[in-house]
Amino acid sequence: MKVLYAASEALPFAASGGLADVAGSLPRAMRQRLIGCRVVMPLYDCVPQELREKMTFLCSLSVPVAWRRQYCGVFEAKLDGVIYYLIDNQYYFKREGLYGHYDDAERFAFFSRAVLEILKYIDFKPDILHSNDWQTALVPIYYNLFYANQPGYENIKTVFTIHNIQYQGQYGLEIMEDVFGLPRWASSIVEQDGCINLMKGAIESAHRVNTVSPTYAQEILDPWFSHHMDNILKARQWKLSGILNGIDTVGYDPATDKNLFANYSVDDMKGKAINKKALQERLCLPVRADVPMISMVTRLVSHKGLDLVQYVMNRLLQEDVQMVVLGSGDWVYENFFREMQQNYPDKFCYCSGFVPELARKIYAGSDIFLMPSKSEPCGLSQMVASRYGTLPVVRATGGLKDSIIDCGDENGFGFTFQSYNADDMYGAICRALGAYANKEDWPILVRRAMEEDFSWGRSANEYIRLYRALLKG
Fold this sequence. Notes:
Layout lengths: L1 E5 L11 H15 L3 E7 L6 H4 L3 E10 L2 E12 L2 E7 L1 H4 L10 H14 L10 E5 L5 H10 L9 E6 L7 E2 L15 H4 E2 L2 E3 H8 L2 E4 L2 H6 L3 H4 L3 H6 L4 E3 L27 H13 L10 E5 L8 H11 L5 E6 L3 H13 L4 E5 L3 H10 L2 E4 L9 H7 L3 E5 L2 H6 L11 E3 L4 H16 L4 H10 L4 H17 L1
């Protein structure tokens, strides 16, 4: 079986979010299971020079973008046994940042056509074309319209993964022919509510559609979660499934993580106490081994549940706790956390921005990790926190529900709450604080969390089953 995995970002080349983690880890896990999986992505300006030096130029070709043709260079890199194809066009990709440019529609139309065009030039004919999110949603659309009956393209199956249904690739109908090169007669494939919706087109066109957790696959059938996509998903529910993401358990390993103040493992936990003490010192909080430290590492946006946190913050900081928040985003939340730090300097610290090494130190040095999301397709932070022995408090939604088992279960290692309600969240935090006070049982919960299997191996096996079922069908 051969899989070509098309993504707009992948570690270690370029990253802006969770998709890069998936595209950097899942193909490697499939490769370890003897599945031929290669990755294709844009060659952005931000790709580090040391990685560019490992690339080999394969060829150049001309790619159609509506009525014009554009240069496309194909570079190859091999990392950890996985072959990556990086698509070069400096006009489209030699820019600051990955997304947010005025011509993103044209940039990713070019990339999607390039994914299909390079199959004539590389020594790899995939059985499965796997595209991800709106940036590559045109891959299954273009395949059906222009390539499926071409020699050399026969019998390729397409899979489309929704990582976050909120971002759908919506544009005005006026650019359908001029930018996307889609004929008018095909407008029904991509049109929704009077505009182009690339995700809708991919859902219509792909042989299978999946998302990044089983619960999220069910939630997006509900208008409250679907961002107006529920009707098309219900009509195509037979092709929809959910597979929970994993994490890189080698990269996220407290026994070897060089970012930590001290390493530790499930069988030797002394280093976790050292990390807590050093983190308190770095954050200018009183050094106390006995006080529970609650942490959040998050983007400061509304769907992360921050309005619930705002509602209970003063009440929570009346307790004997310490708390740290690392993140940036909406100024309303940033200003709120700065105010809390001024009001509770001995209990609360806000760290603006995202500092990867500090995030690792927070995962290792805190005791309880709070993630009260309104919606969460999968989420990685709750898995990383568990891996570092920091017990998660999460709302039972999306991947949070699928990855964290409540301590009410005999195999539980976290604390969950159901409804999107501040008092319910506060109740779950209080349960966590009560468990922390039980010095005999808390280490048992920590061990369960650290031993939980969040590896990509489990996810890769499920993707392989999905691919095999599709090829048999």
